[in-house]
Write a structure and sequence with these properties.
Helix content is about 50%, strand content about 5%. The protein starts with a helix and ends in a 10-residue tail after the last helix. The strands form two sheets. It has a two-stranded parallel sheet with strand order 1-2. Strands 3-4 form a two-stranded antiparallel ribbon. Helix 3 (about 60-75) packs antiparallel against helix 4. The protein has helices at about 1-15, 30-50, 60-75, 85-100, 110-115, 120-125, 160-175; strands at about 105, 130-135, 145-150, 155-160. The protein is built from seven helices and four strands. The longest helix has 19 residues, at about 30-50. The protein is mainly α. It has one domain.
């Protein structure tokens, strides 16, 4: 969902007169921490996809560590438009992930509703390093991936309240940084 929000934000900002090159001028701090978290997340996804570490106890720890790294960078950039919403989204997701052994709980009903029911067996078997199937023992279940973005959306998914805050915050951030709504200067 976050990727969809960012793509939509770029398109809307461009239509509103924003410029992609304005993002390069943005005064981001601690961006390297976000990149480190991305490396951790991608590494977990690749390793899990190959069956290497999905059930290992430390995958949850790495997932939580990745969230802390991103939060460190976000707190350094709270002055930017949309970043407070991103921070709230991260905190909500971090709370539910930390409460559930380092994995985001996912509603099987939400997955079925968006056409992703094929993922239920893998989640139930603990084969996904960053997510787990929601069940009776799930803590803070209301903060898990319980909301649905079904077809005909171009990328159906189940998402959390934290994801919604992240998406809105990212949208606001891109709009502001690209200078959307400003008049273009004649060349």
């Amino acid at each position: 969902m976050l990727l969809s929000a960012i793509i939509l934000s770029f398109l809307v900002a461009e239509l509103r007169g924003g410029r992609l090159r304005n993002l390069a001028r943005a005064d981001f701090h601690r961006l390297e921490w976000v990149l480190a978290a991305a490396v951790i997340h991608v590494g977990l996804q690749v390793a899990g996809g190959r069956g290497w570490v999905a059930a290992a106890w430390w995958t949850g720890l790495l997932n939580v560590l990745g969230y802390f790294l991103v939060m460190y960078a976000v707190t350094a950039n709270l002055r930017l438009p949309g970043m407070p919403l991103v921070a709230v989204g991260l905190l909500l997701n971090l709370a539910v992930i930390a409460a559930n052994g380092g994995r985001m709980p996912v509603s099987p009903e939400a997955l079925q509703a968006v056409g992703l029911g094929r993922l239920v067996p893998a989640l139930g078997a603990g084969e996904v390093p960053t997510h787990a199937l929601m069940g009776e023992g799930t803590r803070l279940a209301f903060l898990g991936d319980v909301f649905r973005l079904p077809p005909p959306f171009w990328r159906p998914c189940a998402f959390s309240l934290g994801d919604a805050f992240l998406a809105v915050g990212a949208f606001v951030l891109v709009q502001a940084l690209m200078g959307a709504g400003r008049r273009r200067q004649p060349s």
